[in-house]
Design a protein that fits this description.
The chain has a single domain, classed as TIM Barrel (Alpha-Beta Barrel). Helices cover 39% and strands 14% of the residues. The protein is built from 15 helices and 14 strands. Strand 11 and strand 12 form a beta hairpin. Helix 1 crosses helix 3 and helix 4 runs parallel beside helix 5. About 9% of the residues have low confidence.
């Protein structure tokens, strides 16, 4: 049975090098009862996802937002002008304890996680129970040694280009008036983008236009702290949103990642066109990063995510919908992390994480969502390219 789990994990989430670090945390030898619960849930979830069986399952992956809102205004996001909301630690602890089956916990959502002073505390608590990962814009970073010693498994810095002008355009600005009304965005997500028209004097603390320099400096300090402490973890990487306009930056990102001493680069497909700003990559653009992955395979790991026509995730029906649950900083529960969901929030909302009882009700609704996934497709899934990958 454990060989089957290893095979699935290796195929879907983790390479062989990560697997040896991950398995003792996923299936703790000191808690055989918990290990058995997780193994059973994982295997049942796999068969539900793969074959559409009607079995009762719980989330294998939890994505929890410590913070809703951000100190940057990215053209593909819109979190920058949302009111900052932070998930209280006691609520976080209650949520984590309610999901013992969760093997992976991602501390990232619609905001910058390090804007909360409790994020390191959350990592330390969650890492005792699961594999903990996160993505940050790296403009703000706690003491690097504290991050390294927190028990974090993976951390990614969001960098789409090492060209300062292009970085600032994507991560700080852009003419949002070109975006709104030419997309199908609705509800809160549209409102967030509409409010994202930039104020010329907007700066975060002392960045003064040198955001990329600060990000790179923080990334270097984290790599150096890990080297100084002689630690293997956390895995440190760069996460880059890949669009037609950033295709030409991909190789430079890989080269910079190698020079910085990070472990991997993750190229994540732009989910939808932003007219006049960024366009979704096409098959030829995808082939470009495939070639780069092969070219640099002996120097750094390159991971390709969320492409409907290929990449490093398994084919078939969306595994996000079957394996994960998202809980935002304002305690709303959703079935996945795709941005299409934010266009149809009322339809996608499973419930609230305000109490153990409310979470239980939301998980019953999630069960119904998964049971009907192949036969009664929600609007936000129909519009998502990952609903079914050929």
């Amino acid at each position: 049975m454990i060989d089957l789990v290893k095979f699935i994990l290796k195929k879907m989430f983790l390479g062989q090098d990560k697997l040896r670090f991950a398995l003792p945390r996923i299936f703790p030898p000191s808690d055989p009862k918990l290990s058995a619960i997780r193994m059973k849930n994982f295997i049942l979830t796999y068969f539900v996802w793969k074959y559409g069986l009607e079995l009762k399952t719980k989330p294998v992956m939890l994505q929890i937002g410590p913070v809703r809102g951000c100190n940057l205004n990215c053209v593909m996001c819109g979190a920058g002008n949302l009111k900052i909301q932070k998930l209280p630690f006691d609520d976080f602890k209650m949520i984590i304890d309610k999901f013992p089956e969760a093997m992976f916990i991602s501390l990232s959502d619609f905001g910058e996680p390090f804007l909360s002073k409790d994020t390191i505390k959350m990592i330390k608590y969650a890492q005792k129970k699961a594999i903990v990962t996160m993505t940050s814009n790296f403009t703000v970073l706690p003491d690097p040694e504290e991050v390294i010693n927190s028990g974090l498994f993976e951390i990614y810095a969001s960098i789409d280009s090492f060209d300062k002008q292009k970085y600032d355009f994507i991560r700080r600005g852009g003419d949002i008036n070109l975006i709104i009304d030419r997309t199908k965005m609705k509800g809160l997500y549209q409102e967030a983008l509409r409010n994202q028209i930039f104020k010329g004097k907007y700066e975060y603390e002392n960045m003064n236009g040198n955001t990329l320099d600060i990000v790179v400096k923080n990334l270097k300090s984290l790599v150096e702290a890990r080297r100084k402490l002689r630690k293997k973890l956390p895995i440190i990487g760069i996460n880059s949103v890949y669009a037609k306009e950033t295709k030409e930056d991909a190789e430079d990102i890989i080269k910079n990642a190698i020079d910085l001493g990070v472990d991997m680069v993750r190229f994540q497909r732009l989910e939808f066109d932003i007219p006049g700003v960024l366009r979704k990559p096409e098959p030829d653009d995808f082939n470009h990063i495939l070639n780069l992955k092969e070219k640099y395979k002996n120097q750094i790991e390159v991971v390709i995510l969320k492409f409907e026509f290929g990449g490093d995730y398994s084919k078939g029906y969306c595994y996000f919908a079957h394996f994960m649950t998202v809980i935002t900083a304002h305690k709303r529960i959703f079935p996945c992390c795709m941005p299409y969901l934010y266009m149809y929030m009322d339809e996608a909302l499973l419930g609230l994480a305000t109490s153990e009882k409310d979470i239980g009700v939301a998980m019953e609704k999630r069960q119904e969502f998964i049971r009907n996934f192949r036969y009664s497709v929600p609007t936000f899934c129909r519009e998502c390219s990952l609903y079914f990958r050929k």
